[in-house]
Amino acid sequence: MPERILKLKSSVIGKMIISIASGKGGTGKTLVATSLALSLKDKYSVQLLDCDVEEPNDHIFLKPSITGSEDVNISIPKIDETKCTHCGKCAEVCAYHAIAVLPKTVLVFPNLCHGCGACAYLCPEKAITEEGNQIGVIEYGQAAKIDFVQGKLNVSEAMPTPVIRSVKEYINDEGISIIDVPPGTSCPVVESVTGSHFCLLVTEPTPFGLNDLALAVETVKTLGIPCGIVINRAGKDNDVIENYCLKENLPVLLTIPFDIKIAQLYSRGITLVEGLPQWKENFIKLFDLIQEQVDERSHSLKR
Amino acid sequence: MKEVIVLSGKGGTGKTSIVASLAVLAQNKVLADCDVDAADLHLLLQPSIRENHEFQSGQTAQIDGSKCTQCGLCMELCRFNAIKEFKVIPTSCEGCGFCYRVCPADAIIMQNNIAGQYFISDTRYGTLVHARLGIAQENSGKLVALVRQKARDLAKEQKAEYIISDGPPGIGCPVISSLSGADLALLVTEPTLSGIHDLERVLGVCRHFNIPAMVCINKYDINEDNTRRIADYCLAQQVEVVAKIPFDKAVTEAIMHGVPFVSYNNGRASRQINLLWQIIAAELESKTEIRK
Questions:
Q1: What pairs with residue B63 in β-bridges?
Q2: pLDDT exceeds cutoff 50 at B283
């Protein structure tokens, strides 16, 4: 028995991906992600990946030195008009209406293209090749002892998911990877959270916080990922969230009180654990609780 | 008819509270909640649902195990990593249908998604169009477009003067879908470094799509240095700062009570939102004049 537990523990420390999500925006994902990373960096190898590629903010707090970058491209069709017979096959197979075939020409709408590649593969004349359309960029570097990666969607581009997918290709094989997830409950959230060992959901004790938390919980459950709750800006109305968590059997793993000092630190781009170092202990404890939850889960799955 | 969309880039800056209060102040309007991922406006406007419609959008592949020969072609070609061990992962499938078209065994079918619902509701402040995207669904941009279309149809029918819409956070597809063709974007920001950073990006989107923008600084007194930075930035960008709303506990209290803060009391925040609406209404009016 002890041997088995030991094995489980080591596999968990071998690789642990924790995503920080919320449903509602502005509840404190970035605050939790950055402070958790800073609190763990001395003990573990820690990586922070900012998947909120529409509005990435972790860099404001961690001030990483960026050592490299890579363009994110999606493959859009390029039509060789000398080979094209205007048969219309490409437009027919495109599920996104990104190609229109006219009698004498073919129009491609890059903003609609998802880069699935069906048109190029299925063109009977082999008249379609694919070319990269740059929609964003990945930047990576170091912040203190944290491996830092962020994705940035180009302003005016619509599709964040390919950028998120590219950020996640940088997940280290070992150590702790913390993923800062965009707000909401739809495709960008699913793309970011998929593959995590655990998902922390940050909420606030208001009806908005509760409504969006419940949506986020459903999304994470659909993905089969265990989750725990952080209540931020906590105060006299905490039971709004606590009652829900009790009913849904969700653990509340950390409570951060409403404190104007914390809000002011945040406004200046200073992380909680740097501004108020006594918080470091709470974030280490948070990680221990997460580990317990993940262990328990893998245990019950084995049984 | 003039359409105002409230956006922010960063989440949690106060869009919904502000839209709910504008719902009280503006006369003769239709309201829309374009944040279909995590809609909250109904919590303040307390709608009674009049109509409830299904939103069908996109497809998901499904593999018929009895026909599948496990040749692996679908897995090799899928760019979305949505097929593993000869099964489709529905949450990863983008519905392109590539696998369906190439499967040599005809073992793949495409099924229509019920991607959500939209509602037309009555509130004491006017008609509200809102929606709920299905859990872990895609195509929020299309659902936003549908919500806006319904809001426009209703506004025409009712000869409404305004459409006031609550927007989603971010700058991606649902934001672009909420924004295109609107008459004015009100950008709600907060005096934090994140708020400023995200404001710059969402203003970039407005510029790209040629939508006039105005800025409201919410909780401006949390950090007055940053408020000044925002004001300077806006000046340089020639974007008007139409209101600075102070941090006021009444705003959160109003949320707890499920009412717009302007109806909750006549405190510091309420007085500013009154001014805000006067300026926006005048701005929209002046545009109509020019057009005439």
A1: B108
A2: yes
**Pick among B102, B138, B192, B249 to test the A interface (most A CBs inside 10 A):** B192
A30 at interface of B, judged by CB pairs closer than 8 A? yes
Q: Which CATH superfamily is domain A13-72+137-298 in?
A: P-loop containing nucleotide triphosphate hydrolases (3.40.50.300)
Topology of domain A81-126 in CATH is Alpha-Beta Plaits (3.30.70)
Per the prediction, chain B carries an average pLDDT of 95
Asked if residues B169 and B10 have their Cβ atoms less than 8 Å apart, the reply is: yes
Topology of the domain covering B59-114: Alpha-Beta Plaits (3.30.70)
Q: Strands, E, within chain A: which ranges? A: 15-21, 46-50, 65-79, 99-101, 106-108, 128-143, 146-153, 175-180, 198-203, 227-234, 252-257
A126 — alpha (psi -120 to 50), left (phi > 0) or beta?
Answer: left
The answer to whether A158 contacts B11, with C-beta atoms less than 8 Å apart, is: no
Average of per-residue pLDDT across A172-198: 95
| Per-position b or e across B216-248, b if 16+ CB within 10 A of its CB | bbbbbebbeebbeebbebbeeeebebbbbbbbb
**What sign for the dihedral angle of Cα A243, A248, A252, A258?**
negative
- CA distance, residue B198 to nearest chain A CA (Å): 6
- pLDDT for residue B286: 86
pLDDT at residue A4, as a whole number: 38
The pTM is what? 0.92
CATH topology (fold) of B2-46+124-291: Rossmann fold (3.40.50)
List chain A domain ranges.
Answer: 13-72+137-298, 81-126
Q: Nearest CA to CA, how far is B144 from chain A (Å)?
A: 13
Query: Please, are residues A205 and A257 in contact by the beta-carbon 8 Å criterion?
Result: no
Q: B289 to chain A, minimum CA–CA distance in Å?
A: 30
What is the per-residue pLDDT for A203? 98
Is the separation of the CB atoms in A205 and A199 below 8 Å? no
Q: What are phi and psi of A104, to 5 degrees?
A: -120, 0
Residues in B touching A267 (Cβ below 8 Å): 190-193, 195, 222-223, 226
Q: How far is B176 from chain A (nearest CA, A)?
A: 7
CA–CA distance, B79 with B59 (Å, rounded to integer): 16
Q: Which of B18, B55, B79 to mutate to test the interface with A (most CBs of A within 10 A)?
A: B79
Listed by start position, the domains of chain B span 2-46+124-291, 59-114
R_g (Cα) of chain A, nearest Å: 22
